[in-house]
From TrEMBL:
Biased amino acid composition, Low complexity: 29-45, 348-363
Protein name: Uncharacterized protein
Composition bias type Pro residues, residue spans: 364-378
Stretch forming the signal peptide: none
Record's compositionally biased regions (Acidic residues): 408-430
Annotated spans, Disordered: 1-70, 338-384, 401-430
Superkingdom to which the source organism belongs: Eukaryota
Regions that span the bilayer: none
Amino acid sequence: MSLKRPFDDSTPPRARPLPPPQKRYRLQSSDSFSSSPSTATSSSSLATPGGPFSTPYTPPSDSPTNPFGRIRKLALNGSEPLALPRATSFSKHLPLRFQLIRIGGGADAIGEGTYRIVQVPLNYTFRHLHKLLFFLFDDSSSTHSELRPDLQLETGGHLFEVQDSIRMYPTKNPNALSRVGQIRSGHTWAKLSSVRDPFRKRKIRDEDAVEDEGGEGEEDWIWEAEEDFTVGHVWPEGGDLKRGCVYHHTPTTQIHITINTTRIPGRKGVGNKPFVFGAFGSGWAPLGERRLLGLGLRGLGIRGIGVDEEGGEERIESGRWNGHEAFEKFLRRDKKRENLRAQDHRSPSSSPSPSPSSSSNPIIPHPPTHPHPHPTQTPLPQTKLHRLRVQYASRRLERLTKKGLGELGEEVGFEEEVDGDELGEEGEVC
């Protein structure tokens, strides 16, 4: 049996150094990358163009459009159409009834009036809902005819009223069929409008003033943003019959949005598009300018019978709304129309003409022949909402800068005072 060696007589063996982690080995000098082509490729792809440094982190795939604003999902890029949200299970879609109401237009009502029964995803924002109303009720021949800029100034623009504790008109009386789907009364607890919201259209003078005024006054309702408020906020517990919305299109045209109570078939799967089960009427154009149409889907238990010029029945194809990418195509067409209207409002004389000396200067490039060239300088905000948010951010930065300079001045004054006291004490000691 061998005796144990005393601790003092022997020196501890030199420990073998542990290999560095794989990640740390990859971040060493550039000589270590020459042995592996794959690592060299990854290093070059991560190198920044401003210097020889590299980072193992990938650049973020998304970033806030404006970190200083109060509305985080505001779409400032007006060149892209409105994108649909992620697909969800059909169990998270609500069957809604969109009933067209005409103030003082009782003579136009035939049967149950003009309506649409649509299954809408709960994650649709009110921007999607606003576009959906045009998709369902706007005739192709009179697209946005009632939303011209001059008419918006006269009527104030559209408005959504979110209500609870609603009461519907009774429908048991056969003479009251024209009031099916109409909200008789309700308590408004939220309003939404991209043109009436005071946070959007008023000139922001101070951040505290915006928070104090808010736009609600003494009312018990609040303003909500169309980009953030969803259908799920209106019906958080599913098909609550006591909740609904009133959409004001014009002073004489409304659309009442409630939970559908008629029988519809079940659907299985996932999706992010609206699905129309039944409809009657062609749109929100006056009766003298439209021809009543109806949509009837066989086997769905919903009748959508329209009347043609000869008094007979007429059916229209469901592919008008339920076709492949029908809603996406409508959003793209609508965005093109908005861009064309924005270009029409711009004055052609406002574009500066090139100076005569620019053509002879070889440094200044010649103006391109393309009608829409890319600007050589960052353009100013074009939309009123964009200008409002930039002004809001700049004012906030100015306040923060003044506050920081004031605190810095106080600290400098305090340090000078302390230094003066210390010098005085040292003079007394001497």
